[in-house]
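2 proteins. here.
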Amino acid sequence: MPARILIVEDSPLVTDALRVLFTAAGYEVDAAASVAEAVERGASGPVDLMLLDLTLPDGNGLEVLDALRSRSSLPRSTLAMTGHNDSGSRRRCLEAGCAEVLLKPVPIAELLRLIELHLA
């Protein structure tokens, strides 16, 4: 059974590109464009890896982790994606349980390498 990746990203263009990339790499892909949708999808079944944008239309992406933690539905690994290149954002992500904090735009080869590393 392929690993399940949940993409939490409010940009349809980014989501579609990642979906094509991850599907071609053999992963099962699900997507959410808001905190509420991400919590619903994340709690609907086991997620092996969540790619989490921090800026969502209905709140901060880290709220997804808090909500899934309260439902005992945390993904095996979470990689945060942000355009904020500051130590405070990075610290908050790591404290919330993110395994990595990636600065957008993330090079495709690096993203695939990190996903493989965290799913190994």
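next one coming up
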Amino acid sequence: MSHSRIRRLHKRPVQVEITAFLNLIVVLVPFLLSTAVFTRLAVLDLTLPAQSSGVLEKLKENDLKLEVVVRQDGIEVGDRIGGLIQRIPTTEGAYDVKALSLLMTQIKERFPDKSDVTVLAEPSISYDVLVHVMDAVRSGRQVQGATIAHVDLFPEISVGDAPIRAP
């Protein structure tokens, strides 16, 4: 064997061809972004009622513990201690949230320092009805001169289950 030409394989580094992949990504990303569904969430800040400690509080003479009870046949607005203030019956199966908002405005005028309310609902009440009731309790409209302004009525809302009626 003579020293003839020895072929040496020159190894070149392998290059990955990603042009086709990049073309796919360039087309796919705008398509996915254009078909994406963006949802908007509205969040209400609610507080749950505290567990009763069993100790009776000394009540002030004008202390209002406002409760709004949503039942199948109407909305009952009352004071936890003083009892029922007004009952707003349903008309043809619909709740009268405008009357509720008007009543809340009247109560707010009488007790301007109060900002908390407890909304109690029966288990059969739909979520949509509950949200409409909370909106009517939380804020209202007030005429100020020539303009109508939104005012906070009872923004601190606690939610819970309605007490069962005695048969």
